[in-house]
Amino acid sequence: MADERKTGTTKHIIHLSAECYPVAKVGGLGDVVGALPKYLQQAGLQTWVVMPWYNKPFVRMHEFEVVYTGSFHQGSRPLEIQVFREKHDVLGFELYLVKIPGLLDRDEPYGYMDESEQFMAFQHGFLHWVTQMGITPDVVHCHDHHTGLVPFLMYHTDRFVQLRQVPTVGTVHNGQYQGWMDWNNAILLPPFDTWKWGLLDWDKVINPLAALIKCCTVFTTVSKGYLGELMEQANGLERLFAMERAKGIGIVNGIDTAVWDPSSDPMLNQHYRISNVQSGKRKNKALLCEAYGLDPSKPLLAYIGRFAGEKGADLLPEIIENISTSNGVDLNIMILGSGDPQVQSAVAYLAEKYRGRIFAYIGYQEELSHRIYAAADFLIMPSRVEPCGLNQLYSMRYGTVPIVRSTGGLKDTVRDIDEDDGYGITFQQADAADAVLAIHRALELYNDGQRMQRIRNQLMKLDFSWTKSATEYVTMYHNIAKK
User: Fold this and answer.
1) How many CB atoms are located within 10 Å of the residue 290 CB?
2) Which of 15, 93, 160, 255 could disulfide-pair with 47, CB 3.0 to 4.6 Å?
């Protein structure tokens, strides 16, 4: 396979990730890895995505070929490995799945007791495959802690010495999750230079995210704002990010505008574009409200996302109760999400209490999310931590005004309507009171029909595609490959 690589100035980039949409997606990581490589491929880079094999519909519905079969030991455990390639490059890049019976053959990416061993096998299996096949890419790009040990293994084990000169990029999608594991797991790693144990360690445990930051050539964050925030709030790694800040680059995420396009989105019943955004959104809202028992004549506020503390989801019950009992406020609220059981129960209770004004879908449904973006007037994101945020980008693409707490990527991508050329509504504190005030501002905007139409038109003209961000990645790849 090594002879299939393009030559000349074109570079060969391998992305390693636990998720990739539409193969397997839990959050924004899957969306990014499903989109960025396609844009890199279009920019002239030979781009691969390598991820674990999952028992998912995408895998069953597409044609794969086996490109490698072998075995290796993880500690004393012998593991069989197969690598599959999707034959027709339907995603716009080459997709490879690593299958290891008992570890990388599961229904879901996360939630297993042996998750550390699971992702260690993915990283070990990837390196075993490429070295056995003589594949030497120009850059290996590792996403989040699930692939965080790869740079260390490339640079500090004799088993993978042929990759020692290959530069690596580590992208931090969410610094709150770090893949901590006890030092007892070190026996599962390939033999390494024990003098280098400190590169794996942080606070007396093996910390894959810390190892990624220490060992990679360059690390990126998914927005410029988040790069700075990691030095102040990174779940214990603040000092490390400050120490390594010289090799950090903030590049804001984009969205795949072929997938997220209200003029052609196959998940919508009514398509629209800038020229008919008002009528298009009105028709989509009517259809959605009819399906879920809401009144289409009222403004529609939506929340889409995980019920997690970092998303500010625990504030939702208080926000809903407050806004639902405010004098003179009459709106619909639609919630799509799952996670914290207490938040789920509280949201479900309020949806029943205010039936006909609030609807909650506990879980996640991709088609419903698209329909909500197209129908909603406003999307609220009361996040405590938001490395980049994609939901606000999707909402703006569909002419839906974002209401966001000004943090991380939300601060980078949403400009308040009271600023020059502003197009969103921002608030500063991660509390229900500030969020409710922002919602009242949103309703004032809604009641000013001409201004609301102007803002919608402005939103749909914004360009948050991957094109600009992909160009920044291409420049970075070329710079580190030269070095």
Assistant:
1) 11
2) 93
Domains and CATH numbers, the chain: 2-255+467-482 (3.40.50.2000), 274-463 (3.40.50.2000)
Nearest of 116, 142, 176 to residue 50 by alpha carbon: 142
- Helices of type H across 17-111: 28-42, 57-61
Residues 270, 286: contact at Cβ < 8 Å? no
d(C-alpha 482, C-alpha 442), whole Å: 49
pLDDT in tens, 163-180: 999 999 999 999 999 999
Is 25 among the annotated ligand-binding positions? yes
- Asked if residue 430 lies in contact with residue 316, where contact means CB atoms within 8 angstroms, the answer is no
The span from the CA of 271 to the CA of 279, in Å, is 10
| C-alpha pair distances (Å), 148 with each of 12, 160, 255, 359 | 20, 16, 24, 40
| pTM exceeding 0.90 | no
Q: Percentage of residues in the chain with pLDDT exceeding 90? A: 94
- Residue 49 CB coordination number (10 Å): 25
User: Which residues touch 98 (CB under 8 Å, ≥6 apart)?
Assistant: 50, 51, 52, 53, 81, 82, 83, 104, 122, 125, 126, 129
Nearest CA-CA partner of 81 in 49, 53, 110: 53
**Beta strands 401-405 and 77-86, pairing class:** unpaired
CA 430 centroid distance within chain: 21
Is 102 within 8 Å of 215 (Cβ atoms)? no
Cα separation, 314 vs 320, in Å, equals 11
Give the separation between CA 85 and CA 148, rounded to whole angstroms: 23
Closest to 245 in 3D by CA, of 261, 232, 256: 232
Rounded distance between C-alpha atoms, residue 172 and residue 219, angstroms:
7
Buried b (16+ CB within 10 A) or exposed e, 62-90: eebeeebeeebebeeeebebbbbbbeeee
Task: Give the length of the chain.
Answer: 483
402 has which bridge partners?
379
Enumerate the H helices of 1-62 as residue ranges.
28-42, 57-61
How far from 152 is each of 57, 147, 184, 339, CA to CA, in Å? 34, 10, 18, 33
Beta-strand pair 94-99/77-86: antiparallel
Average confidence (pLDDT) per 10 residues, the chain, 483 residues: 42 97 92 96 96 97 98 96 98 98 96 96 98 97 98 96 96 96 95 93 97 98 94 96 97 92 96 97 98 97 95 97 88 96 97 96 94 98 94 97 96 95 96 96 96 97 92 95 80
